[in-house]
Amino acid sequence: DIQMTQSPSSLYASVGDRVSISCRASQNISGYLNWYQQTPGKAPKLLIYSASTLQSGVPSRFSGSGSGTDFILTISSLQPEDFATYYCQQSYNTPYSFGQGTKLQIK
Amino acid sequence: QVQLQESGPGLVKPSQTLSLTCTVSGGSISSSDYYWNWIRQPPGKGLEWIGYIYYSGSTNSNPSLESRVTISIDTSKNQFSLKLSSVTAADTAVYYCAREGAVPAVPLDYWGQGTLVTVSS
Predict the structure, then answer these.
(1) Chain A contact present for B107, CB below 8 A
(2) B18 strand-pairing partners
């Protein structure tokens, strides 16, 4: 099975900040990496798929990069609604697996 | 707009079988373009993929749960279902159903709101 490891596990930032979250796969997953945002009590929301493709309707301040084993989610200018938990997920093969999550909190 | 809605008992006794149904509206579950997934999230913890079913009935499940998981589809009702047998407290979680694009490949793009299932006597 492929293990996904995110860093950091938690992150404090302010509105307007630029932040990055890392995700590392235990083996090469090419570009089959997806990012989700989850707010308390809600289902995860797809932000980015195939490492760098922005899902329809997602603001352009979100971007993704990487390939192989190392990936990054970047939020260029944090907005109040961006404070949430972010998960990466590999869809290279089954069983699909998620990172443990990164909780983005207000500083 | 596609919508998914989970339904089923919120409380299950240990050793019994958890049964959930996901009803899809705004789109056909019989489409060859999608896989229909189950994912769960224990309270305060991360996400775990349970498995998926294709319109044809073919399934793929997480080996960690495979011996206890049954996923089925009812195209006449536009629903798919999850059964998890021999449950323990470790199976307490919010259970989500979600759509995954097969052609083109797009991951879990539509999710149900989730339903909390508690395993307790």
Answers:
(1) yes
(2) B84
Q: B108, B74, B12: which is closest to A97 by C-alpha? A: B108
What span, in angstroms and rounded, lies between the C-alpha atoms of B84 and A17?
Answer: 44
pLDDT tens, residue by residue, A29-79? 999 999 999 999 999 999 999 999 999 999 999 999 999 999 999 999 999
Which residue type sits at A79?
Q
Distance CA A78, CA A13 (A): 8
**pLDDT tens, A11-38?**
999 999 999 999 999 999 999 999 999 9
Nearest alpha-carbon partner for A71 in A56, A85, A57, A90: A90
Q: What is the pLDDT of residues B104-120, one digit of tens each?
A: 778 999 999 999 999 99
Q: Which residues of B touch A44 (CB under 8 A)?
A: 47, 96, 108, 111
Single out the residue of B24, B8, B25 nearest to residue B93, CA to CA: B8
B39/chain A closest Cα distance in angstroms: 10
With CA atoms as reference, the chain A residue closest to B41 would be A43
Distance CA B71, CA B57 (A): 9
